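Thread: "does anyone have the structure for this chain?"

Original post by V.I.:
We have the sequence but no experimental structure in hand. Need at least a predicted one for the grant figures.
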Amino acid sequence: MNEKFFCALRSTCQSINARNFLNLLILPAMRRPILFGILFLLVFSVTALASPAGTYVGKWIGMNAEGDFKIALSQAEKGEWKAEVSFTYGDSDIKCKIVSVKVEDDKVELVYDFEIATLHARSTVTGDIKGNEMSGKYHTQGADGSDVDQGTWKVTKKIAEGAL
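Reply from O.Q.:
Generated one for you, tokens below.
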């Protein structure tokens, strides 16, 4: 008698598991919006986690010169973006003073001041963010508003050591 009881119990459990599985595959109309909502939130949260914050290194190419280019982006708790920018010009490493930072969707715009010898200038960098890369154009004006240089730039996000 015990064997019949356990066989009946096992068979009932198996039919319950099979029934539950079928219910998951064939969602009633009321459950579909809930499932799609959960899937949407999951995909949106994964996308939101792909923040452009980080340190990027690459190159800039101007009309008469080229060099290394470094951008470090960070975002404060309130959502305000901050940046640090430096580049090489010849053998010199030029540190820049940030004037403004805009990061919206897949676009970036940085405005910064710098000095090279007696030249006081302001560059505006605009570009696109694509995964771990950013690229675009820049335009530099002297303190008097005269055009100094323009060109392109491209940087790639550095992977933190020990992250692999």
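V.I.: this helps a lot. DSSP finds two helices and nine strands in the chain.
O.Q.: and Confidence is low (pLDDT under 50) at residues 43-48.
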